[in-house]
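Hi F.,

I've been meaning to write this up properly since the lab meeting, where we talked about keeping a consistent format for the predictions we share between groups. The idea is simple: the sequence comes first, exactly as it goes in, then the structure tokens exactly as they come out, then a line or two of notes. No screenshots and no reformatting. I'm using this chain as the first example so we have something concrete to point to.
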Amino acid sequence: MEKLLVLYPAQPNAEAFKTYYVQNHVPLVRKLPGLRTLRYSIDVQSLAGDASFFCVFEGEFADREALRAAMGSPEGHAVAEDVPKFAQVAPIVLRYSVEHEV
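Output, unedited:
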């Protein structure tokens, strides 16, 4: 399994970010070919209470090739091009393979 993890830092206008993200961006993400599941959370907090990130997104794909194909598709390009419309502070985007699952 391949995961896509997107970490959004604090944004200058949290409410505008949240509204656009939920109403516009997540529906675009749902159209990614090969996306098995997605999860997101807004207003992320660290255990110490000093959150470095405001929003976290996690998407699951069958494998690395499925993720590459999704991000290279027209839907993937639409998702990437949409990010600057709501994220004034750019996110950190990570991908990783799940090597062990309990």
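Notes:
The mean pLDDT is 94.
The beta strands are 2-9, 37-42, 53-61, 92-97.

If this format works for you, I'll send the rest the same way.

G.
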